[in-house]
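Re: that backbone. Tokens:
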């Protein structure tokens, strides 16, 4: 990297492909000193092994969290310990590049590592995976799955004999280089994204380069575009009843494919004439993020080794289906996605890296969970995920509202409380069943197991929305009341309530631990509760504890006035 590129990189936020680390530690008196070299080396090994197990990336040593350049000020023998960390602390040893450079008269160490087809383990036995800006441990049972996934990624890395740099759109690459701040010629640009290799000083192109920037990408992959088909009605018909009203094939280099597909589909996303409230931030039949993220995921993660199928987008009156060739890359599963787990595995790390720099992909592992959130926030059904014909991963987005206008008006009372779609569903169920429900009702209505139901119901109780009708009972009731029946509550009420529900009382030390207060601050806060008649004190001195009064439980659906 050039100095200019490093300066640009320093100002970027940490993410999937980049991290910066300080080599300093602060002493109690506010002064700083160099961290132990072995601790810095451990950080280097952790970050680079996690990146190699994911999509590759860069690490800069000598930069603070606020982008201040503080430098690497260790003796030369200690610097060597740090530079050799990828070899000495990782198994199998990592192949990395490391450069010493000077910014503002301070020396920085810049490490770069490519995606690796092998799975790397730290010498302390841990396996790490880069997900967003974190290095996340993952279990040994997933190691073989990730290995298999990495073997699939070899397709985009294959060298294409006969292809030359002249087969690429140079103007397109220059535009991207300018957009992401890379000041380099075409060859250096391709090197930056690991899209070429050298054989006898001759440049050889990888498949990913031709798909991303090829003048004629179909020459290298006959079905690398997207087919958009709009049907009349809610079912696909054939023969004389064929109900296709529009069909368009989008065929461009991958760096343009996503935006061009947006342009084709956007005119067909209708505006909804609905109440504009909590659930409907946009007046569109599909939230923009949801349908666009489904397209981004399809382009980034489809199996390009399947040459006979393209990505297909089917639009019906009631839904959009985004159909992507290939199964999910292991260890990602539909079950884990439905649980909203933040999990990431790239079948096409070279392609993903470019799309991320273009801004199409954000934090890895966040796209599908946010897609669920956007659909639910807009009062729509959660996305449906399925595998079809053993080779096509399909995301289905439905445009029918989950809630009626009357439901929405009733749910407004919980507008300041974060609730899941399942929690809203059970509250609406209870509303028409005497304001009561059971765990079995929750399991049946929301299609979840007993453990998920128990977790969600306890969350509703902590938020002051429901309670058990009687101790040890099985029926939960919604807490209701008029506005003027409820007292004002001081800060920390929800935390105090959670402690009281668990222990039956709360002590000074409990409040200090949860709210991070001093002993005096906690004492004054308890005095507010005593003055309002919410708590009463039992015992004295260190044995003093506070127990709830009847007034303490009279909350208005967890919404507290300040």
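Recovered sequence:
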């Amino acid at each position: 990297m050039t100095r200019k590129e490093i300066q640009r990189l320093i100002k970027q936020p940490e993410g999937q492909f980049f991290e910066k680390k300080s080599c300093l530690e602060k002493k109690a008196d506010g002064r700083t000193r160099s961290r132990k070299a072995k601790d810095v080396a451990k950080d280097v090994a952790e970050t680079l092994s996690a990146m190699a197990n994911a999509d590759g990336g860069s690490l800069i040593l000598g930069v603070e969290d606020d982008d201040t350049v503080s430098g690497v000020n260790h003796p030369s023998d200690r610097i060597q310990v740090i530079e050799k960390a990828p070899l000495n602390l990782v198994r199998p040893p990592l192949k990395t590049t490391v450069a010493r450079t000077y910014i503002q008269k301070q020396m920085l160490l810049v490490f770069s590592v490519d995606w690796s087809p092998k799975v790397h383990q730290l010498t302390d036995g841990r396996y790490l995976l880069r997900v967003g800006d974190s290095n996340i441990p993952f279990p040994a049972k997933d190691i073989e799955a990730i290995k298999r996934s990495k073997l699939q990624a070899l397709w985009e890395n294959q060298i294409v004999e006969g292809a030359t740099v002249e087969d690429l759109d140079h103007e397109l690459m220059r535009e991207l280089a300018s957009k992401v701040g890379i000041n380099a010629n075409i060859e250096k640009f391709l090197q930056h994204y690991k899209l070429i290799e050298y054989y006898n000083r001759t440049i050889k192109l990888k498949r990913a380069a031709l798909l991303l920037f090829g003048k004629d990408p179909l020459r290298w992959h006959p079905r690398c575009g997207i087919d958009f088909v709009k049907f009349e009605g809610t079912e696909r018909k054939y023969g004389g009843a064929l109900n296709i009203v529009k069909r368009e094939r989008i065929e461009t280099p991958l760096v343009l494919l996503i935006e061009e597909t947006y342009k084709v589909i956007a005119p067909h996303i209708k505006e909804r004439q609905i109440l504009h409230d909590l659930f409907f931030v946009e007046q569109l039949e599909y939230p923009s993020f949801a349908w666009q993220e489904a397209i981004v995921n399809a382009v980034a993660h489809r199996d390009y080794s399947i040459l006979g199928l393209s990505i297909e987008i089917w639009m019906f009156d009631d839904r959009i289906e985004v159909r992507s060739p290939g199964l999910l890359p292991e260890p990602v599963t539909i079950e884990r996605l439905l649980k909203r787990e933040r999990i990431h595995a790239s079948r096409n790390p070279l392609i993903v890296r470019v799309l991320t720099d273009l801004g199409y992909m954000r934090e890895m592992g966040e796209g599908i969970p946010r897609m669920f959130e956007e659909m639910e926030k807009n009062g729509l059904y959660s996305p449906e995920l399925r595998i079809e014909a053993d080779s096509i991963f399909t995301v289905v987005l439905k445009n029918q509202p989950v809630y009626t206008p009357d439901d929405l008006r009733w749910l407004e009372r919980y507008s300041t409380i974060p609730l899941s779609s399942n929690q809203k569903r059970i509250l609406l169920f209870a509303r028409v069943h005497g304001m009561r429900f059971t765990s079995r009702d929750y399991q049946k209505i929301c299609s979840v197991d007993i453990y998920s139901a128990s977790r969600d119901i306890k969350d509703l109780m902590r938020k002051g929305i429901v309670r058990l009708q009687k101790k040890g009972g099985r029926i939960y009731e919604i807490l209701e009341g008029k506005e003027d029946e409820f007292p004002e509550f001081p800060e920390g009420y929800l935390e105090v309530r959670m402690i009281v529900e668990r222990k039956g009382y709360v002590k000074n030390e409990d409040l200090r631990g949860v709210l991070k207060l001093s002993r005096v601050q906690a004492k004054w806060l308890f005095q507010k509760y005593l003055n309002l008649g919410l708590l009463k004190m039992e015992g004295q001195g260190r044995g003093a504890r506070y127990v709830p009064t009847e007034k303490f439980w009279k909350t208005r659906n967890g919404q507290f006035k300040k």
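The chain is about 35% helix and 20% strand. Residues 14 and 133 are 6 Å apart (CA to CA).
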